[in-house]
Amino acid sequence: MAFVIVDTCVGVKDISCVAVCPVDCIITTDSDPFMLINPDECIDCGACMPECPVNAIFAEDDTPADQQQWIEINKAYVSLDKAAFNEKYGKVIEAAKEKNRGSAHANQALY
Questions:
Q1: pLDDT digits 0-9 by tens, 64-86
Q2: Which end of the chain is less congested by CB atoms within 10 angstroms, N or C?
Q3: What is the three-class DSSP state of 92?
């Protein structure tokens, strides 16, 4: 089991969780509007969870039913090349970004 970042992070990308991760398993790039957790590196410590201002981090087993696809998305980001990832999940990412566009946290993104 690993922790999972779900759609409420997309477009917000608050980096508070990155600083507390003891194994640097939270993936973020300048070009992506989101962050994900590498499930192969996550040690399930949970340090990141309370740091997220938009409650976007869940233990895999506790991921809400409507966010289950994000378990696969977190795994796919580290296993697929960027083009294949974008082809498969690009529309999901864009939909989440649009959904979060009006949130106060999205307007104060820290990336």
A1: 999 999 999 999 999 999 999 99
A2: N
A3: helix
What angle (nearest 5°) sits at the alpha carbon of residue 56, between those of residues 73 and 60?
A: 55
Pairing of strands 26-28, 57-59: unpaired
Number of structural domains, the chain? 1
- Provide the 3-class DSSP secondary structure of residue 58: strand
Cα first-last separation, the chain: 28
* DSSP one-letter code for 6: -
Statement: residue 107 has pLDDT above 70: no
The residue segments making up the domain with residue 102 are 3-108
Closest by alpha carbon to 12, among 32, 37, 38, 39?
32
Q: Give the CATH number of the domain where residue 20 resides.
A: 3.30.70.20
pTM: 0.86
